[in-house]
Design goal:
Layout (H helix, E strand, L loop, with lengths): L1 H16 L11 H4 L10 H15 L16
């Protein structure tokens, strides 16, 4: 019975330590700093996302637009 607890603890430690080495290395940061890696790199996608945001937040005054939240502002 005692060994099963040891196995459970060992498996839990191995499972949680599996992602401990993830992260951005210093020599990989130049790839993430490129302009095409921005979340809003495409102007058309940004305009579409802003329209959706304005439509959903219009009832609470999202960024100065008024309307009913149905997208008909």
């Amino acid at each position: 019975m005692k060994t099963s607890y040891h196995w459970i603890i060992l498996c839990a430690v191995l499972a949680t330590s599996g992602c401990s080495s993830l992260g951005v290395k210093p020599w990989e940061r130049n790839l993430l700093a490129r302009e095409d890696m921005l979340m809003d790199a495409d102007a058309l996608d940004l305009a579409f996302d802003e329209h959706i945001y304005f439509s959903k937040e219009a009832s609470s005054g999202g960024q100065g637009f008024s309307g009913g939240g149905c997208g008909c502002n």
